[in-house]
Amino acid sequence: MSFRRNRARANNKDPASQIEIRGPSSALTEFLREQGINAETIRSRYEESLLNGSGENIEEIADELISEANANGANIDQSNNGNDNPDDDADDDDEEVLEGDDEAALENEDAVIKKIKRRAILKRKKNGANNGDDADDIDDDEKLLDENESEGKNYCFECDNEFTINVYSKKMEKFGRIGYLCPTCTNIQLQREKNAKRNEYEARKRRKLIATALLDKQSLSFPTLQDKCIQIISNNIDDVELLGDIGIINLKKICRILSKNRSLNNETMKLFLDKNLNELEFWDCSKIDSDSLNLIPIYIPNLSKLVLNMCGQLHNDNLVFYSKKFQNLTYLKLNGPFLINESMWQEFFDSENIKKNLKEFHIYNTHRFTNDSLISLLDNCGNHLTGLTLSRLDGLDSKSCYDLLAHYLINLEFLEISYPTKEEIVDDNLIINILANNGQSLNTLVLDGCSGLTDSFLITGLKPFALNLTKLSVALLDQITDEGVFQLFNDWEINGGLMDVNFQRCTELGDKSIYQFLNHSQKTLVELNLNSIKKITSKLFFKISRNLRLPLLTYLDLGFVRSCDDKVLAILSRICPKLAILEVYGNNRCTADANVRSDLRIIGRESDSI
Known about the structure:
By secondary structure, the protein is α/β, with parallel strands linked by helices.
């Protein structure tokens, strides 16, 4: 009631208009009380019906009482609606109904009806025992009685303790049953779910770390204290002056980490300019400008080995400065020096220090190293060169210049001629002539991408001359055949065995040649690449399993060899006890179910995806 209505009723002196205040009760409860309908009335009427033997059903009695109450309520509503007195309308507007009281009244009525039903059942059960009623009716009454007694009680689905369901009770389904949990079990279940989510997150995080380590061909393990210190130094590399003295071996590790993270720049490179160094390797010089590159010979004039990868900012002035300042430079490797022109290469090779000391020269990825540049190199340094790399040099387009290699080079230990600008530039005769002059000293031969080569250089060049060869790479040579490779390794007695072999995408090879090669080099082979040799069948691996062992093999690439499956992985794990890395990209029959050693890292399986 509002304050205005309370005040009006307080000022009303008529006792008849006074409404007795009984606390919070609804209009329906007040109405039933005025009509004389209450639990005592219903009970007395029911007992009366039992004494009279009327046989009325208790539900009918209850329904009748409720019907009467509703009918009376309807009459009252009609009389109120027909009243034309505005004062009465105002009084009707002053009446206030509370929904909570209505619900409480209905609950009280339901409780009364339930009690009446229970008494009726007990009464009927007692009378039925005396009068000989049907036993089925008595059983039904007992069942109904048990249901009424258990109604409103809830038992925990987990611990079977009685509790009251609230909005925080957790619903649970288990073994096809559904129920609710008590507060204690609810907290336990919530904690279990929280732990499960955390464990799932940690497992997913660990899978990502394992997958990342696999791609880097490493194993996921706790880092050593030394590795942790190197990592901290790498993260704080900008404070170069505060780092103090660091060992040469650790300097190389830090330099590689910085290059991998693209953090090697004009400032961080100063950490590695130690005058006592003999070798310097910068694997990413893309952020080092020309002026900073000039600091290398200033700080380390006695440097003997220099590796500059991605050195696109290396200018002509830098090369001239190097030729004057480096007194003992014997090894130079440059990748991407495309700003140095043809005349500057000639001037560099003509300088006294370079002409006298340079023994290994490796150059990659530049179009400005031309035919004249190669001739200048051979004229000044050819007789004492022991290592030479000519890779992806579009400026070298003359076959006659390549033919000069066989005349100048006589002491080669390392030779790489890869990806020439034209296929016909590098042919069988060129390689045979080079092998004839350098076969006894040559231990590494890389001919990747020289697709003009055929079986002739294998049988006529390698087999009679390459007695000390340990590394052979002939990737993408699609003209060498299964028969040619078989003849090379069949009775190749002058060669004691190869250690590193790359047959990637030599598509004409098959079981016959690969088995003969493995039979020849099984005791010395360390690394092998058979990627994309699609003619290899599973019969090869079963034959190897019965007849060969590869005790030193540590790396094997079988990517896109479709015959490779879980059985093949198990065979390789058994016959190659030191095999550490096995790549199987593109082989969808290689799964995580393969029976392999725990220390064997298999890279490229679909099941290992992040």
